[in-house]
Amino acid sequence: MSYFSYQHGALYAEGVPLADIARQFGTPVYVYSKAAFSDHYAAYATACKANGRSERDALVCYSVKSNSNLAVLNLLAGLGSGFDIVSGGELQRVIAAGGDPRKVIFSGVGKSREEMRLALSHDILCFNVESIPELHRLNEVAGEMGRKARVSLRVNPNVDAKTHPYISTGLKENKFGIAFEDSLATYRVAADLKHIEVTGIDCHIGSQLLDDAPLLEALDKVIELIDQLATEGIVLDHLDIGGGIGITYADEKPVAVSDYLNRLFARIDAWRREKHGGAPIKVMFEPGRSISGNAGILLTEVQFLKHGADKNFAIVDAAMNDLMRPAMYEAFHDVRTVAQRGEEAKVYDVVGPVCESGDWLARQRTLAIAQGDLLAIMSAGAYGMTMASNYNTRGRAAEVMVDGDKAHLIRKRETPQELFALESIPR
Ligand code: LLP
Question: Its function (predicted)?
Fold first, then answer.
């Protein structure tokens, strides 16, 4: 289902015309669909239940980095979601949004002592640890606090996720995780540390995966390791397969979340029956993009049209600082006109006002537009606002959440004064 669709020639977010949102809140503005977030989350939650038996022991930990607005986190918390965080800041967001810290897992290669202390003080579910020095630091911090830290080791299964090199994380050459061949030894170290309780295993092989074959390959490797560990008396109670399922930006056909989860659970169930007398194991996921990506768009207004001999440019009021993905990864985002009109269609590069040649949002798009028109940059709900910056002293965009026929402002547009409020001139 599309949550952003044309009705009588005008583009809507659910039941609200995008033109009304631009009028009320200005542009550029991120617009989210509440129903889209709920439905995308439900695809995971439902597949976790649908196994013909009673409810599974499974937890979906939404990856906060993909879209971390408090309203989004609050919505997902209300649906029962856990959260995958990568900083103390993200933990504070989850708590401020009413999320349950006991459903939080903490990923990332460089956790500071302060972040560890904060997470331990909120008794989070688990730290996903990525190296031996991190284990020692966590052991020390937990010891100082008189606590035990629940730990999962992020192993690197060396599987080719076949995605963009910048967002592939499961190969040997990546900075992430513990090399597969070192994982047994690292588990032994962890098991000997007094303030560490080894509870799980996790991996994350990359993002925007269209096929689940690499994920199932990673699962097979993880399963093998869990069995090996058990022979040494290290018994894990959960496995976390990470995030990664991709979305449609152009004409990609990603595997359906339900098909992927059904295949994954079928393998897990077969393994548990065969080797563990059917004893269940808790299964966790860390999806980001597949929940937030197509739940949001970036709405922008055409400032000027520049028609040249070689190229036409549509200069809009959104820029690379609002949506970094095209400049950073040459990512494709579909561009739709908010009002379908009868102008002559021309081929445009859609660019922003930032002083960089790399400041483009879309290239070579056939658009029938005039100055003052509104454009929707599609599939911008994930890694859009969360990666935005203030380059060129541009305040970050406002954010609006649409719920049926209501539009709620969920983040105000930043003012220039707010941007330099923390600065001072030495006297
Ligand atoms: N878990 C871990 C440990 C991760 O590193 C990531 C994403 C996720 C979960 C969520 O993955 P997802 O389900 O969203 O694929 N900025 C890039 C994407 C970077 C992804 C980094 N890790 C982009 O805009 O495409």
Answer: Specifically catalyzes the decarboxylation of meso-diaminopimelate (meso-DAP) to L-lysine.
